[in-house]
Amino acid sequence: MANFVVLHLEKAKGADAKMSAHIERTFIAANVDESRIHLDRELIAFPESVKSRSAAIEHRIKNANLKRKVGKNQVHAIRVMLSASPEAMERIEQEGRLDNWCEQSVEWMQETFGKENLVSAVLHLDEKTPHIHATIVPIVTATRRKKKSEENVKKHYRKKAEGARLCADDLMTQAKLKNYQTSYANAMQPFGLERGIDGSEARHISTREYYTEQYRKAENLKEDISLLAEQKEKVAEDLSKAKSELKQTTLKKDISNASSNVARAIGSLFTSKDQQVIADLNKQLFEKDRVITTLKNTIREREAVIETERGNVESAEKELEQFRRDIEKWYPGICINVAFANRCSCSYRISDEVVKQLLGGKSVLCSGKFRPMGEKVPFELDNAVFSSKTVKQGYRDLFINGVSVDDMIKNRRNQWYLDRKQREAIERLQRTSRGRRM
User: Where are the alpha helices (DSSP H) in 268-401?
Assistant: First the structure.
């Protein structure tokens, strides 16, 4: 059974409104089960007066006391997606440890990127595999890394003020990305999870997930090009340095004479061995250029595939939305009732006969064990009154003895959480007392 952690990081542009719409479900993708949207959870509370993820990003930047002006094209946020292999996440849910997994994942992000920089974290339970969408605002305080081209510059300019600054590149270096994978895997060991094979590629099943994977590969290719460009720059510097040293040690004639003497003087600078070294360096430069050209062509091909898939997804979503509008036009309320019936049958495991009576507006007396999907411990019911009603536009809810099923589940989970914290506090107190007696 696969027990690998899943950790994706991706730079976002501006306030990242499109991703906010996906995370906050103001836009419903095709792979989302609308009957389970109410199970999604906010793991990080927004500051007072902040109502959305996009606003939280800008609120953090505005209140970070940055020492440098934010550039027009700077990255404002880093998207983070955390999950595990589908089989592993299903096991964690069945063991009743999903809340613990969420807590540990949030703690890892706060320790890794800074508590104030983690402005949003949402648990999605309405897709096939539970996962967390988190948002990091890349505020850093470390000294800016110098470019290689700046290291040997003799002219000095006035240094910019040190302090907090917005810099996604400092958090997204190749070395740090690998370290994040290892660090997160170590934090997830208590859940039986481990790091995936370095360099392996996950395979997704949905069109949107496929699009996301293609985009990630294109970004990785761009990083490879950047790395090769740095290597090319280093080789060029080595070549320039070699030529300079050879000039200083072998130049014996004044090349400021006639042009004919210049040619002979340059020829005399290099021995056959020196000329071979220069030829090898030039060959390396040529090879790096060839690899970069190949990677650029690959990126263009991937971007073309991405654009095609994006068009297919948008077209399918428009057709689905039009189909729903047509159904609602001729059969008002049927979509709400179908979603409610499916939720009762699949998520709440209620018999078809009871569902039919609920759809007819009747109340039904039921006894026995009631265990909604995802709940390890069932509710014990004795002559409980099952009823339903539309609680908001487009959503019909199930009630037991006048209490929403969603509220019943939430209240019990909260109580379990409080009980666990109380037990932990008692255990800590007992350990402290034993230590003092010794």
Answer: 272-330, 334-342, 352-359
